[in-house]
């Protein structure tokens, strides 16, 4: 079998997996008893501190190699889709749930879908949808103003999840779902059920749900069926509009229309199946929701802990926005450099995707290690950004490290080790959108509110539910003292 090259040349001292350090394991269960799915990333990061940048553990009988070196991780991510891919069991789980799309696809299918999806996130598309993004941000402000007037605590993550669904569906699908004002829509809860189940099933010793359904599996089926029905409705409406106005097929106005046009493409190489269209609609809904909502919730957490940072964000907003209430374009949002730095630092410390699940497509060499085709790896992308060798005072929240020019003597700063959006050909296509969303919400909060923690003594914990969210984050908004 062909040997892929994750190293420039296989080193003379290449060894196999059995030589790697790692925690002791039980014969059949491996390390399963030590793993709590909601804390999995923390367990792996703890083992990294103990066993180093290349170690192994077992999920049941399956050996997994954990990689925590920036150089190896960047190389592995760059050499996709040919040499490495996402975990095949993850693809199976996602396909089984019916949202197989660009995130889980591989090979030619991925190439075709990726090209289409990228067309929804060009700078031009983001500029065009900026007005809608502003409208949705103002709705969120009204909701938080009402909470502030009542002195009520805010479950910020829940509100932000509605915000991100509204933004993704507006930007990618051209739809105004307005979950923020409707307040009672079950969609965000259904998406949360899907994520939590996915995270749980990755660690199941065998796919029991294919034989017997527990209450959590029945809840998942129900959530999936409701989300699917909703999305099929949306697709039907968009299809009917395209039929009414065939000229639109030549210049689709949203990703949704582009997907439908691709379904009917004459060229079989460009054509998407019915299932691929629906799968990608669901993929974008899921990929765009929790990741960005979690990041913004963590940003509010840091703002609440650091009034000095809030004050700097506010000074910047006052100077840059003048009489307008929000940035007027994506470029205007990018000029808010302090706020951008706060978002970058939040992503470094609290990456919504702290680990990546990768598999070797063929026999390969990773650093000093020989791996067989199908070998499973986990890449510690968040942990890399927490290392002193890449960032000075790495454990601290220091947004200024992202500002240029950097002050002399500011210490180590290696942006290539900031991997919250992944890297290489499969880097997150939604990163520009999520940066603008976070800047809009950061600017809105800094301009109009003081944000504080409802209970500063209560710890906010990291909880992995496929994405990594702050558990127990309740904030209070008070109208800004002018
Ligand atoms: C702060 C917010 C976000 C974070 C931290 C994040 C993080 C990531 C990461 C780590 C990956 C895997 C990259 C890799 O394998 O190299 C990814 C992939 C992806 N993300 Fe994001 N993401 C965010 C927001 C979004 C948004 C807003 C969208 C779209 C609306 C989106 C859509 C996707 C898609 C479709 C993929 C799969 C790409 C592929 O496999 O080719 N993401 N994201």
TrEMBL record:
Source superkingdom: Bacteria
Alphabetical keyword list: Heme, Iron, Metal-binding, Monooxygenase, Oxidoreductase
Gene3D superfamilies, A to Z: Cytochrome P450
InterPro entries with a match to the protein in the record: Cyt_P450, Cyt_P450_CS, Cyt_P450_E_grp-I, Cyt_P450_sf
Keyword Iron found: yes
CDD domains per record: CYP_unk
Any Pfam family hit: p450
Family to which the UniProt record says this protein belongs: Belongs to the cytochrome P450 family.
Protein name: Cytochrome P450
Source organism (scientific name): Sorangium atrum
């Amino acid at each position: 079998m062909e040997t892929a090259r994750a190293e420039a040349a296989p080193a003379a001292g290449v060894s196999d997996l059995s030589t790697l350090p790692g925690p002791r394991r039980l014969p059949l269960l491996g390390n399963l008893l030590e793993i709590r799915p909601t804390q999995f990333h923390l367990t792996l990061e703890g083992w990294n501190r103990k066993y180093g940048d290349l170690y192994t553990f077992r999920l049941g009988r399956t050996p997994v190699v954990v990689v925590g070196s920036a150089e190896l991780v960047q190389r592995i991510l760059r050499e996709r889709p040919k040499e490495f891919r996402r975990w095949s069991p993850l693809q199976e789980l996602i396909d089984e749930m019916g949202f197989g799309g660009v995130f889980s696809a591989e090979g030619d299918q991925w190439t075709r879908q990726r090209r289409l999806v990228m067309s929804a996130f060009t700078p031009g598309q983001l500029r065009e949808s900026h007005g809608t993004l502003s409208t949705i941000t103002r709705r969120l402000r009204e909701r938080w103003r009402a909470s502030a007037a009542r002195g009520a605590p805010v479950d910020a993550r829940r509100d932000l999840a509605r915000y991100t669904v509204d933004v993704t569906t507006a930007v990618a699908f051209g739809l105004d779902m307005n979950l923020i004002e409707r307040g009672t829509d079950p969609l965000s809860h259904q998406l949360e059920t899907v994520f939590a189940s996915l995270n749980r099933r990755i660690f199941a010793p065998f796919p029991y749900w294919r034989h017997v359904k527990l209450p959590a599996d029945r809840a998942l089926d129900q959530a999936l069926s409701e989300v699917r029905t909703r999305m099929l409705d949306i697709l039907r409406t968009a299809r009917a509009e395209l039929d009414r106005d065939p000229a639109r097929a030549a210049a689709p106005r949203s990703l949704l229309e582009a997907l439908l046009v691709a379904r009917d493409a004459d060229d079989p190489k460009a054509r998407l199946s019915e299932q691929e269209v629906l799968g990608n609609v669901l993929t974008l809904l899921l990929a765009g929701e929790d990741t960005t909502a979690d990041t913004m919730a963590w940003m509010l957490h840091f703002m609440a802990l650091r009034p000095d940072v809030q004050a700097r964000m506010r000074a910047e907003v006052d100077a840059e926005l003048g009489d307008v209430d929000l940035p007027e374009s994506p470029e205007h949002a990018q000029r808010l450099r302090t706020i951008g730095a706060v978002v970058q630092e939040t992503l470094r410390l609290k990456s919504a995707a702290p680990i990546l699940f990768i598999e070797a497509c063929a026999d390969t060499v990773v650093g000093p290690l020989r791996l067989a085709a199908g070998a499973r790896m986990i890449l510690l992308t968040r942990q890399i950004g927490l290392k002193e060798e890449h960032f000075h005072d790495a454990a601290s929240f220091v947004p200024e490290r992202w500002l240029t020019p950097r002050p002399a003597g500011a210490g180590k700063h290696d942006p290539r080790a900031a991997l919250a959006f992944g890297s290489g050909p499969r880097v997150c296509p939604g990163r520009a959108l999520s940066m603008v969303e976070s800047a809009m919400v950061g600017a809105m909060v800094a301009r109009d509110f003081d944000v504080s923690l409802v209970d500063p003594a209560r710890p906010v914990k990291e909880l992995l539910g496929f994405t990594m969210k702050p558990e127990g984050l309740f904030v209070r908004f008070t109208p800004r003292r002018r």
